[in-house]
Amino acid sequence: TCFFVSILFSGHFVFIGQQCITTNEYDKKAKELKDGQTRINIQLQQHAIADEEYGTTLTTLMDLASRAYELFEKSKVDQKRKLINFVLSNLELKDGKLTFEVKQPFAGILKVINSSSWLG
What is the pTM of this model? Predict the structure, then answer.
C-alpha cells in the first residue's frame, strides 16, 4: 500500500513524496501514534489538574498570609510555635537579638514583595 506523505506548513499541506509500506507496518505505526496521543492527553489532563490545584493552593496561601498577624495573635502558644516553625528556621538569640531564616515559599514571596519589580 502506498501513501502520499505531506506536512502542514503555514496552513497548507506540502507534498513530500510517496511512501509504500505494508498494511501491517501502517497499522503498527498508527497504533504507536494513537498510543502517543493517549499519553499526551493523559499528561495534559494531569497538568490541567495540577494547574487548578496550584491556583487553589496559591489562593489559600495568599489568604493565610494576608491574615497571618491576626491568626498568630489569636493562636495559643503551641499553635504559635508551630506557625513559627512552619515559616522560619535557624532561630537564634544572639546578644538579645533574634536571628532567623525564612523558609520557602515565604522567602520567595518576601523577595518579590520587597523588589522594585513588584511595585511596577
Answer: 0.44
